[in-house]
Backbone:
């Protein structure tokens, strides 16, 4: 199975500051036939199911604020929040769907400093 | 509006069995692969199983393979997860998720989840 490793496990950032969360896969999730990275990001707030933020590594889901962006290719990916808002406090997960046996990163807990 | 409504979660003894269901609405259920993802209390997300549109192809995490069976009834727009030989480590909220027609899909809709507790 592909192992997804996120860093850091947790971070505290001041309101208005930029946030970067990293995700590394144990093998490439770039599918050569369509040149797409099979990588998604989710946000989960307490007591709620996860919410899709980003898919194909960099495509923002409809309705997601444009302060959220995804980047990277192959094995190294990032989720960035340009200006942290109070409502962004959550746990963030990356997810590879390159293989039928999907895997998630362990999660990154984001808090306000 | 897409809706996924899980049911069937309960307290069950170790070694017991349980079937959870997911009633889907708001989309053409038979056209989409479906999956189960679980989350143990205070822990991260774990993919459990995926089923193709027709149900002919199924995939399982090693942690549940041979004990859990995913199935679907496209005439009832319902997804199932039959769980046998349950263990304490299967205690989790089980989410039903929808993706795209392919099994190689991100999960764009999630249900609210159903809690399965395995304890004596």
Residues:
């Amino acid at each position: 199975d592909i192992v997804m490793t996120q860093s850091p496990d947790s971070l505290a950032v001041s309101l208005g500051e930029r946030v970067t969360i990293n995700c590394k896969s144990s093998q490439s999730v770039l599918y050569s036939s369509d040149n797409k990275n099979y990588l998604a990001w989710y946000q989960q707030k307490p007591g709620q199911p996860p919410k899709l933020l980003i898919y194909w590594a960099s495509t923002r889901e409809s309705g997601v604020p444009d302060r959220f962006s995804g980047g990277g290719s192959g094995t190294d990916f990032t989720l960035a929040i340009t200006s942290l808002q109070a409502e962004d406090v959550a746990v963030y997960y990356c997810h590879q769907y390159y293989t039928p046996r999907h895997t998630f990163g362990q999660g990154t807990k984001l808090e306000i400093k | 509006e897409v809706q996924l409504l899980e049911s069937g979660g309960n307290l069950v003894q170790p070694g017991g069995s349980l079937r959870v269901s997911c009633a889907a609405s708001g989309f053409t259920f038979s056209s989409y692969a479906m999956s189960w993802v679980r989350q143990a209390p205070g822990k991260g997300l774990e993919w459990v199983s995926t089923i193709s549109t027709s149900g002919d192809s199924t995939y399982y995490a090693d942690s549940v393979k041979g004990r859990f069976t995913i199935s679907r009834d496209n005439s009832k727009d319902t997804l199932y997860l039959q769980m046998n030989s349950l263990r304490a480590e299967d205690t989790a909220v089980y989410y039903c998720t929808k993706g795209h027609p392919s099994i190689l899909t991100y999960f764009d809709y999630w249900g609210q989840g159903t809690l399965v507790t395995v304890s004596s």
